[in-house]
Amino acid sequence: MFNDLSSLNSYLSSRRSGRPRNMIAPGPSDEQIKDIVATALRTPDHGKLAPWRVIRIDSDQRSLLAAELAKAYQSEKPDAGRLELEALETMAHQAPTLLVVLFSPVTSTKIPLWEQELSCGAFSMNIIHAIHAHGFVGGWITGWPSYNDDVRDLFGKAPERIAGFIFAGTADGELAERPRPELKTVLSRWTGT
Could you tell me the pTM of the whole model? Predict the structure, then answer.
């Protein structure tokens, strides 16, 4: 069983993201979204900088988002094919809930940008955890839109960057496991030599 909420350890050891294209309604309510983001505010944040922001894209804005994604893509790739543009249209409309997380660095501080980036990643992961804690399934994706300045400018401005698009909803079926690294390739013991 994935995302087993019977205990914190059970959840963490069974955590599994969902594929945004496989998410259906219902998604989190307005109050649940507020609670999800408020929970993520518990993220470690050296210097208390909060180097992250969240923008919610409501369902009535998804067509506009799709049009803006296509415009930015065609500006970068004028020979874009139909399938590429359809993929952007699909991305903009999948799952009932869509949150855009922005990395908002604070440059006038002694806290290195690397630490702020780590905090933003942890913040994004905590949004996923909170989505699952509410009984939904979440998925965090990046891809081309996360690295395009025109797309970023839809939500913020430089030096901000899109940390990812977080989707939430109800899984339309059973989640499937994906390959995980073997523990022995990740965990080792330092011998001091």
Answer: 0.95
